[in-house]
Design brief:
Number of domains: 2
Low-confidence stretches: none
Shape: globular
CATH topology of the largest domain: Ribosomal Protein S5, domain 2
Mean pLDDT: 95
Order of helices and strands: EEEHEHHEEEHHHEHEEHE
Radius of gyration: 19 Å
Number of strands: 11
Amino acid sequence: MLDSLILRTPAKINLSLDITGKMPNGYHTMRSVFQTIGIYDRLILTKTEPDRPMTLLCDTPGVPCDEHNLIWKAAVKLLGEKPRGLSIHLDKRIPSQAGMGGGSSDCAAALKGIRSMFDLPVSDQELHEIAASLGADCAFFLYGGSCLAGGIGEELTPLPDLPRYPLVIAKGKAGIPTPEAYSRLDAWPEPLPFATDNVLAAMKSDADTLFSACGNHFDAITDLPEVEIIRKIMRLHGLNPVLSGSGAAVFAGCAEPARAEACAQDLRDAGLPFVRVTETVPAN
């Protein structure tokens, strides 16, 4: 058994996000193509004395380090209500309220890491069920790469890995809480176009064709001033800006890294606090 583990936990984007309905319990059904990208948090797991209560620390102020954190919830699922014998340190690089799945990715990494460190008799299917119970995106990060998601996000079909396509992603200081985003979408008066089938077809084509097919229903209801700035700059570079998740990060991909870099520089010049040039990355 291992005494320590250092894990990189990737962010994701939604190449498509179609909201297809609302269930009686209030959850929304969806069809989406999830894709991991090369932006990572870092999770450090270290074994401690067996009777010592678990600790969770984070280098970013404002991130909860208690039972409200998905990492903590993952540990409880595997080690019991009062987990012991483990310390966890989170280096946070994926922004919050971005739709990039940072918390869900950290949760999935914690599940896999704890299972490995403590040599727990938990099958992959059981781990998937635990992840899905903790959050709609958590199960996806057990796989990574490209996946078609259905249901509330827990019905996953792995897709062939994309090439490492360049993309630029940016986020302003403001975000939209997920419940508020869904509430706005529920009140939207007109049908919205679906993008998932177009994305699935375009995944067999080139980068520019793929990224021009991307779309997200939440784009219709997201009007934050910084999001509008990001969209304008990306369009000036001939790119298709698309929200990730329920926002508020916006991405655009293309075939040429230099084009993504030029767009990123203009976004930085506009004062956006989070701007990265990255790429799509394959499954774990």
